[in-house]
């Protein structure tokens, strides 16, 4: 079974595989991020241009949303021959749940100029298996395979993949399959027990200097909590050919249990 089944030209039905980690009756945002990347790449009626590759995916998460039918919309905000800015939105139960602004650039040969990428990390075959269900519940967590090398709380190198199709009976490209796994970064290198501290991300931005392969996605991840209720998850993105980009997520950090006699804050 897939994460989504198409029910119309712009509508999709989510399955139990998208079940969330903070609450299992809500959607984990990760598959939705992949779905929006997929419609940006494939909605020819809205875009109508080929020969452009995604260089940035910038998502905003507007709130939690239930497991059910979703609708997507795509429009070009800034057309052009060399670069194009595309907006995609995902609606659920009559309101916007996730939005994406993607920059695309014309494909060209710059192999003789390539350089400056960070070094590789040990691949999935050299990273021990790890069961994320020991930390998180939910259908999405159950659907992924994870390998992890943890350095300390909030610092780990993680490899993640899924054999669950993003959309049933549709060809989905490597970029969208990769995008559907990126939100795992924040949950695979936790600084604190999520039963005691909530740290959901309200956004996710990935900058890409080459197209990912699909398959295993490597996340060389650092999580930072600040002193005033916010945090940042940062990761260098890898596939089995090496690094291909970076990722950042803005976190809202809230204690779920009393500390030093204080009441827990509202997450």
Automatic annotation (TrEMBL):
Residues 21-104 form the Acyl-CoA thioesterase-like N-terminal HotDog domain. Pfam families: 4HBT_3, 4HBT_3C. It comes from the Bacteria. Residues 125-253 form the Acyl-CoA thioesterase-like C-terminal domain. InterPro entries: ACOT8-like_C, Acyl-CoA_hotdog, HotDog_dom_sf, TesB_ACOT8-like_N. This is Thioesterase family protein. It comes from Cellulosimicrobium protaetiae. The lineage of its organism: Bacteria, Bacillati, Actinomycetota, Actinomycetes, Micrococcales.
